[in-house]
Amino acid sequence: MAANSESTPKRVAILIENKFEDLEFQIPHTALQKAGATVTVLGSRMNEEYQSYRGTVLIKPDATATEVSADNFDALVIPGGSIRTNPNVVRLVTNAINQDKWIAAVGHGPQVLIEVDQLKNKQVTGCRAIRKDIENAGAIYLDKPTIVHDHLITARRPGDLPIFTTTLLKHLGLTIKGTDLPDTTESDHEWWELGKAWGGSSRRQIVQALNTAIIGERYTTEAFRQYLHRVTDADLHQLLQTSIDLKRRHVKQLEDRLHTAFQEQVSWQAVGSEAYAALQSWLQSTDEIAILRRVLGDLQTGVTDTYRLSNQLTDPLTVDIMDTIEQDLAQYEQHFADLYRKHAGEQVQPPIPTTVAAVR
Question: How does pLDDT run across 212-233, given as a tens digit for each residue?
Answer without folding.
Answer: 999 999 999 999 999 999 999 9
